[in-house]
What does this fold into?
Amino acid sequence: MPDYTLKIRRFQPESGQAAHWEDFQVDLPPERSVLDGILQAKDREDASIGIRCSCRAAICGSCGVKINGKSRLACNTRIGDAAEEAARLNGGSVVVEPMGNMPVLKDLIVDMDAVHWKKVQRVVPWLLPEGPPPEREYIVPAEAMIDITQSMACIHCGACVSACLSLEVDPDFVGPAALAKAYRFVGDPRDGATEERLRDLAEDPHGIYDCTHCFACIEVCPKDVAPMSQIMRLRRRATNDYGIKDRNNGYGHEKAFVTLIEKYGTLHEAQLLPRSFGDGSLIKGQTEPGAVKELVENLPTAIRGLRSGKVTPRKALLHPKLPDQKNVRKIFKEIESHDERIELNLYIVGEQGDAEE
Ligand code: SF4
Ligand code: SF4
Ligand code: FES
It folds into this structure.
């Protein structure tokens, strides 16, 4: 039976000791899970190792930890694969530590209530239907629910919360899991508070516009919920469907981004700021008093960009279009020619013919 070394981060508040690392030798077939390894160490060497688990089948969402620095389910990670990864990364043991962005209670157990569940409560995670309730259940056509099946697949493991880079910088950010949950209700045809929900999350400085598109949540989610995609859906609904112009300039920023890509194919960084303050328009962004005031307030950011070389005077004035820019325009035209918005829901797979269509 192969031997593996688990390097587990220990923290036992009752001991008065600071957090530290401890190594445990386990012997298991490579296809068994890291959770099996932790439970073996707990069984044979130290019963005080703290780990939450229940189903051992990637269903209950309770065994979220970081393995070799990546947030994942311990029961859904093969120990052999983790050891190969560890050999590539650090030439040694499988490193197991508690998830990030949440306070550690003990060893591998984090305080999900203090962060994850608090944020889920923030988005009003229940239906708010309009009008008098029907005599029996609310009935909706099955196809009307397809759009939210992806967000409904969440098992609340907290892996995305742990990996979110925006949360690391802004702990008040509503966060990927809670926003995916918000889309679950925004996209539900039975809900009667869609606009209020969207306005609330758009106006909140820690809401939908606080996400920086880093893809980390998509990468780690064991259920392919793709929280970032759900956040982008919330933004599209807020800007395109309800025209919500929020105080965070999220509306203008989206418009500016899309306009620039349509025009140049790549992001013209120097125009992004003025256009964002002008609801997508360069002229408005440089002439309207409110926009000019915001632009002036953001000058230090522009100066930092110049200093770091991210923006140069040459780049600012002469941003080249992509050589095949007309193909980018074609995509825009194609999308705009449809009466209904095209939703790229990667969770739903169809026949090849459907995809081509
Ligand atoms: S894409 Fe957005 S929500 Fe997801 S991890 Fe990155 S910043 Fe957080
Ligand atoms: S969205 Fe995915 S990673 Fe985040 S809590 Fe839900 S299942 Fe876990
Ligand atoms: S133990 Fe239930 S998801 Fe891992």
Remarks:
- The two ends are 52 Å apart (CA to CA).
- The first strand starts at residue 3 and ends at 10.
- DSSP finds 18 helices and seven strands in the chain.
- Confidence is low (pLDDT under 50) at residues 346-350.
